[in-house]
Amino acid sequence: MTATASARRPRVALGPMPSSRLMTTIDAARVRAPLATIFELARDVERWPAHLPHYRYVRFTSRDDAMGGVVEMSASRPFGPVGWPTFWRSEMETIPPGRTTDAAGGTIAPAIRFRHIGGITTGMDVVWEFVARGAGETDVRIVHMWDGPTWPVIGAFAARTVIGPVFVHGIASRTLAGLGRAAERIAAEESTR
């Protein structure tokens, strides 16, 4: 299904991250840009390839009315001059800044949640977390949690020793750094206006 033919679906609501999984990777950075700027860049996944040379494509196959839906992504994990292509499909939920309470009256921090529903990383849970700091800076943290592929005997081992630290971290760290640089450029341009 193309992006123009994307079907609307009920709002994706993935809920909280799991409390534990066999594999957890965390990538974090302080971005010298306001929370709204980096959040919008991270939320606008279809534009990631414009900011991130390691992304091959990103496209929604269905959307909800809260800027989420089902998204297909492909990125390359470089190994020297060669890029190893990866692919996954995810449900995506956005919790924008300014949404302050949940149904129980608790505070909700801005976040972008993914749950992989296709590709080798099916079942992986991901969250982008954003915390505003003083002076127009934002701490951004990406957490990936997964029990690994369903391969007998070696699935969890492969997740912890190769897929998580080599592929997931290798792509997520480049994604965070690239979007951080883009947000900092935007913030610098806005400060000179």
Strand order of the largest sheet: 1-3-4-5-6-7-8-2
Average pLDDT: 89
Oligomerization state of this entry?
A: single chain
**How many strands?**
8
Q: Give the count of helical stretches.
A: 3
**In terms of structural class, how would the helical and strand content be classed?**
alpha+beta
Sequence of secondary-structure elements: EEHHEEEEEEH
Q: Please give the largest β-sheet.
A: 8 strands, mixed
Amount of beta strand:
35-45%
What is the terminal-to-terminal distance? 41 Å
Outline the low-pLDDT stretches.
1-6
What does the overall shape look like? globular
Helical content stands at 25-40%
How would you describe this protein?
This protein has 193 residues and is an alpha+beta fold. Helices cover 26% and strands 37% of the residues. It has three helices and eight strands. Strands 1-3-4-5-6-7-8-2 form an eight-stranded mixed β-sheet, with helices on one face. Helix 1 crosses helix 3. The longest helix has 37 residues, at 155-191. It is globular.
